[in-house]
Amino acid sequence: MNSYDVAIIGSRPGGYVAAIRCAQLGLKTAIIEKYANLGGTCLNVGCIPSKALLDSSHHYEDAIKHFEEHGIDIPGEIKVNLKQMIARKQAVVDQTTGGIDFLMKKNNIDVYQGLGSFKDATHITISGEENTEIEAKNSIIATGSKPSNLPFINIDKERIITSTEALKLKEIPKHMIVIGGGVIGLELGQVYKRLGAEVSVIEYMDRIIPTMDSGLSKELNKVLKKQKFKINISHKVKSVERVGDEVIVKADNKKGEEVEFKGDYCLVSVGRRPYTDGLNAEAAGVKLNERGQVEVNDHLQTSTKNIYAIGDVIKGAMLAHKAEEEGVFVAEVIAGQKPHIDYNLIPGVVYTWPEVAAVGKTEEQLKEAGVAYKVGQFPMRALGRSRASMDLDGFVKILADKTTDEILGVHMVGARAADLIAEAVVAMEYRASAEDISRMSHAHPTFAEAVKEAALAATGDRALHV
Predict the structure, then answer these.
(1) Is 123 one of the annotated active-site residues of the chain?
(2) Domain spans in the chain, listed from the N-terminal domain onward
(3) What is the CATH number of domain 2-146+273-341?
(4) Could you read off the pLDDT of 267-312 as tens digits, one per residue?
């Protein structure tokens, strides 16, 4: 029987990053993955493939809508080759997962393919082509999450689908009904909207992206409606039925009236649930809460002290980069170091175009906590860089403490917001004030100038270009 200092169950971003950091710290490490490819949801059927399709569809939309204005004439009809688009997406996935294979070999991490389940607190059985048992002084549960569903919906994976199936459709939908106005639904909805589908979003809450600042929700709602999305908020879905190649969705609107939606595809994107199936956690004394999450303490230890859990399987935002931070954190805890994570500074991103990004507190959270704050906001359309690229939608908003000027939250909608948010994270990590950012030189012309201008606005209505 092979023995290890650390065994990680699950090779998603949190799991494989934890494995690499453990190996760097001199710990003999094994990683266990039930699927044929490493990388889990993010690399195989999540973050990476969805961004590949978002980029491809963005190129197509630019070609049919914007190239002529840029002085680019393309003879003949521009057509979508969906088969090639999906193939390119898969090539990106294959290259990325292959890179994880390389990193495991480079760091001398033993990889086991099969379902890992606890025999007890220090032994894990691996059921696959060959059943194996290993011993581990410490274990990390990194099994991630699966798409959630509503109890009355039968997902047939053909017409009523999850994000997994939406990444490999063989045709462009005529009318895609999206249940859920969160990140996944809006991103994949935009892919197919660009390619020619009609898209109707049905959201239970009173706004899309409901966990983010309401200002971001309002702006993105406005932009998507301009893009001809049909957005239906405050709608409670009560039935989803397939009749041949048609899907019929019935919902109650905010007045309690029944409304009906008909389409050829229905994407169910109502969140994700922790995935612990087959883990046999109870055999190791690991406790789960009522939501199916693994319970952990501040050191991410479970109820069994030599077993840790990270990522989507524990409380908190279900984000790949959160899981990575937790993977490094646990590796360093096991090695005897004293790392830290500031969960307030984990950014969130929606990869629509324009992109949406945020870090820190929302206005709603500050109001609820009774914190006195001030707001600095700057529109993207006031930037020379935005006019040059025709990316005029959105804004940057900075929330700062009214007395100390410390930045408490940054929220933005706009081109490259997913990259711009890193400046805010760095600033807040060092407890910068709005004035600190306002006095830093930002290259011109760039989208990043909007961050400086918002900081100027927050320091006393000093924005220069509005």
Answers:
(1) no
(2) 2-146+273-341, 160-270, 345-458
(3) 3.50.50.60
(4) 999 999 999 999 999 999 999 999 999 999 999 999 999 999 999 9
